[in-house]
TrEMBL record:
Residues 23-57 form a coiled coil. It comes from Amphimedon queenslandica. It comes from the Eukaryota. This is Uncharacterized protein. Keywords: Coiled coil.
Amino acid sequence: MGYCTFKYNEKLKVKDAEILEEKTQVEEKKQIITEDYEKLKLKVADMEEQYLKEKQIIIDDNQNLKTHIYEKDKVIAKLTSNEKQIITDLKEKELFIAKLVKERQERVLKQPIKETSSIGLQFNYLIPSMDSLDSSVIIAGQKLFILQGDRSDSLQWEKYGFRLECPQRAVSKDTEVAVTALAGGNFKVPKGTIKTTGNRATTLCGSKED
């Protein structure tokens, strides 16, 4: 009986040892699993934190891009508005310049020579007194010149050999000069008459400014 009890106790001890070993192995595996789980949790937490950081960076970049686009749109709108204003101003200036050029051309076309056949019309205030002329003297021709005044000018009437050089700013702008060509007889020319050739004289009369 005592021998059997001893043998049974030995078996029980072996069994307890096996159970304890298994329990230890389970605990070790559990510890490993726990450690792996904690590591995994940390890794997931790190990945989540990195994801949130990258997500925030993307959000910030999108916001910055929207702001940048908005600012650029504002600049483009301003430039477009300025361009339209510049185009409008240029068109207005072109119209104004075209108007000035047209007026200038019209004045130039009227300017070179104005000829008249009647003393009573344009030359009333320009013709010298006829009282000092011999009765046989006739008016061969009359011409009206316009001097610019702001530049050197030259008046020529080739038919009667008349030429007059006028320096820049010697007269006011758009000064009218009446030239009367006299022919025939012996006469005393009025005061202010300039002899141009041996048998020709030209009288420069009072000028009129526009």
